[in-house]
Amino acid sequence: MEKIVIEGGYRLKGRVKISGAKNAALPIMTACLLTDEKCIIKNVPKVVDVATLSGILGELGAEVESGEQGRLVIKAASEGSSTAPYDMVRKMRASFCVLGPLLAQRRRAKVSLPGGCVIGLRPIDLHLKGLRALGARIDVEGGYVRAEAPQLKGARIYLGGPCGSSVTGTANVMMAAALARGTTIIECAACEPEIEDLANFLNKMGAKISGAGTPRLTIEGVDSLHGAEYEIIPDRIEAATYIIATSITKGEVTIEGARLEHLAAVMDKLSEIGIVLAGEDRRLKVISPAKFTSTDLVTLPYPGIPTDLQAQFTALLSLADGISVVTEKIFPDRFMHIAELNRLGARVRKEGPHAIITGVSGLSGAPVMASDLRASAALILAGLVARGKTVVNRIYHLDRGYERIEEKLSSLGAQISRIEDERGSSEEVIYA
Ligand code: EPZ
């Protein structure tokens, strides 16, 4: 098992290129199951979750070939196993997105329930509600969802849940509706750029989807879809993570490739904290202030502040003057990073869905434990500025969603390296 060692106190300088968006690549990969023709996807990030999903698609009969520069060629079979087993789905929750495409293309599917994780219960009731509305017969037994549909039929579906829209729920139902007979309208659809990217890919495959990026999606079902070539959007969460990494070290970095329109709420909040973002689309210069201003922050579905940046913002605000309150509205338990940040000298306490942060003048290095993808990133950010050495353990979480993070940070001047943990791989791997 590997860990990351950071010597804190080095200001980040230079320029960093943002990779393709993991959360766009994953559903787009599952959409390739909707045709038996070849699909070419470009700018796919080299992260563990993509490799895991490639393996699952292979088990479902698809040929998956990864090439240079993030190019992925996927050719699914129109027949083959329609079972996505537990030991695969538990590793990567997003693989539950094979359900909609398998149901639409092969008329049946058996997919393991994803189960919960450290950031929350991760229910799938909205996925099933949407697919049932399209006429699928769905049974849940033995930890598996079994779905059958001789022919899916268009429907009007409200897909909002207690915390608003569902990203992968929208993806699953939209992909199934693409091959349903008739028109489907999804109300309270997720507006995330990654869903818009998926809709754009499906339309290149011959689907007829309008309203992507808005809460109302209209999908006119077609008889079949063909292969397509597509380039994934840049990863807005990775981009914001490097913006915060630059700011927390009081550095000056140019972020290359990020789309400004995907970062409106994030940039607004960063400016409240005192961070200046200059430049134009795809070339954003981060200029850090001498000190950070405390503020309050609430995570919301897009276009609000993403829950996937809550931990990173918490790390930054731990060094702001005064008290900040971070409220997590999407995954109220998503606070595993608090205890670890406090080991580094932060002063954060959890009150229900709120993190109450009392700013401190500095952090000091210590060994810490990563618990999930974005909490790991927050610990790296804190380690970049903590005095002395920080060791982040269980970094397999990090590798699921960040491409070559220590290389990118080293190129910006961070003193960071990845080393083999002498305890070996005795520790059980826990999937978040
Ligand atoms: C996606 O997860 C992302 N993953 C998550 O990113 C992200 O945190 C999340 O959306 C929210 O933006 C991928 O896209 C692969 P949801 P998803 O369904 O789709 C509730 C990362 O770090 N809900 O949008 O699983 C749910 O409990 C990962 O990259 C239901 O109630 O999240 C939550 O409160 C972590 N019923 C809210 O909706 C359902 O059927 C939003 O969840 C589904 C969800």
CATH H-level homologous superfamily name of the largest domain = Enolpyruvate transferase domain
CATH C-level label of the largest domain: Alpha Beta
> What is the helical fraction, as a range of percent?
25-40%
State Rg: 21 Å
CA(first)-CA(last) distance: 17 Å
Number of strands: 26
Structural domain tally: 2
Oligomer: single chain
Q: Which regions contain 5 or more consecutive residues with pLDDT less than 50?
A: none
The CATH architecture of the largest domain would be Alpha-beta prism
Beta content comes to: 25-35%
Structural class: alpha/beta
Average pLDDT level:
95
Write out the distinct hetero groups bound to the structure.
ligand EPZ
- Please describe the biggest sheet, giving its number of strands, its sense, and whether it closes into a barrel: 4 strands, mixed
**Spatial shape:** globular
CATH topology call of the largest domain = UDP-n-acetylglucosamine1-carboxyvinyl-transferase, Chain
